[in-house]
Structure formats: C-alpha cells, structure tokens
Design goal:
The chain is mainly β. The protein is 0% helix and 50% strand. It has no helices and ten strands. The protein is globular and about 40 Å long. It starts with a strand and ends with a strand.
C-alpha cells in the first residue's frame, strides 16, 4: 500500500510563494503520471496540475495556470506556487493522475489578504 506524504504548506500573504513536496513511502513514482489536487472544506477535491512520467509534459487547471509549476524527480513530486491568492487556500494533495492510490493527509495552504 502506497502512503503519500505531502509537505511544504503554510500561511502566506497574498502574492507570496510556497513549494509543496510529495513523497511516497516504500516506492518511487516511476513510471506513473502524477498530479496535485486540492480540496476546501465542504467542497469536492479538484485537479490542480499533473506531470507525465515519460515525457515530462505538464497540465494545469485554468485557475492556477501561469502561477504554479509542477516538477518531479524519481522520489518526489513538487508544486511551486507563486503569486498566491486567498482563493488558493485549500488542503493540497498529491496522487497519481488519475488518482488511484489512497489519499494522504495533505498539506494546508492558507493565503491571507
């Protein structure tokens, strides 16, 4: 059973930056496409960004396009978040794309105005 562990969240002001990181216990991410997702209380989890393992091709939700960059190495997946807005406040999760592994606990991102 893969256990996903997200980290790097925090409290930042509008316009600030954070770098989220995701690791999987007991394995590398090869050869899976990976993604970042986010969820606010009472709302459905939504897609944020993904990266193809083979090609490195990335895909972003319109709401974050131009402000976030997803990257990966063999053991971690990263989400560099810039120009953060209050509406980016959520719990952020990583998972395969599509999401087929069990969800981790996520990492809280809070952006203050």
């Amino acid at each position: 059973q893969v256990q996903l562990v997200e980290s790097g969240g925090g409290l930042v002001q509008t316009g600030g930056s954070l770098r989220l990181s995701c690791a999987a216990s007991g394995r590398t991410f090869s050869p899976y496409d990976m993604g970042w997702y986010r969820q606010a209380p009472g709302k459905e989890r939504e897609f944020v960004a993904s990266i193809s393992w083979n090609s490195g091709r990335t895909n972003y939700a319109d709401s974050v396009k131009g402000r976030v960059i997803i990257s990966r190495d063999s053991t971690r997946v990263y989400l560099q978040m810039n120009s953060l807005k209050p509406e980016d406040t959520d719990i952020y999760y990583c998972n395969r794309r599509p999401a087929t592994w069990s969800w981790g606990q996520g990492t809280q991102v809070t952006v203050t105005s």
